[in-house]
Amino acid sequence: MIDLMDEMRQFQTILLEQPHRTEEVKLRLALMLKDVDLGPKVSAINKNPHTLSKAELLDAAKALITGDRNETHGDAHTQLSHIALLWNGYLRTDAFDAEKAAMMLLLVKLSRSCNGKFNPDDYIDLLGYGALAGECAIRKQAQGQPAPN
């Protein structure tokens, strides 16, 4: 039997010390409390990170960008466009669009994956941002906008 108080203390510690694991904690809580099948993201999280396959990493990224994050933050293209507008205003430039914002976020994740301890979430997020950037580029091409330099 699961000791609920021990689990809650562990979740609290994770959230305080490693806030980037918020999605993992949410999913584990949902699984623990509702006994539902949450699909590939949960199987990737519950598995030893040193044995994740490329398919499991891709499935976890897909689950995030088409489900959890999409529900939380709304349409990715719209969010990335807002990020680009904020960066353009802050830097006084017009260099960023949704695709470039996704690529910059991908670079942040790439930097994180090169430093510190191994974290499979870095690679899952890299895959997710890559897919989002690709979708933004495809949308630009469909609208007749020029390809990036």
Structure write-up:
Helix 4 (54-73) packs across helix 7 (120-142) and helix 5 crosses helix 6 (98-114). The termini are far apart. The protein has two domains: 1-36, no CATH class; 50-142, no CATH class. It is built from seven helices and no strands. With 149 residues, the chain is mainly alpha-helical.
Percentage of β-strand residues: under 5%
Mean pLDDT: 80
- Determine Rg (CA atoms, Å): 17 Å
Class from helix and strand fractions:
mainly alpha
The main β sheet shows up as: none
How many domains would you count in the coordinates?
Answer: 2
Instruction: Give the termini separation.
Output: 58 Å
Number of helices, counting only DSSP H or I runs of 4 residues or more: 7
Question: Rough shape?
Answer: elongated
DSSP, total strands: 0
Helix content: over 70%
Model regions low in confidence, pLDDT < 50 over at least 5 residues: 34-38
SSE series = HHHHHHH
Summarize the SSE layout with pairings.
Elements: H1 4-17, H2 22-34, H3 40-46, H4 54-73, H5 76-91, H6 98-114, H7 120-142
Helix pairs in contact: 3-4, 4-7, 5-6, 6-7
Short recap of the structure:
With 149 residues, this protein is mostly helical. It has seven helices and no strands. Mean pLDDT is 80; it is low at 34-38.
Question: What descriptors fit this protein?
Answer:
single chain; 149 residues
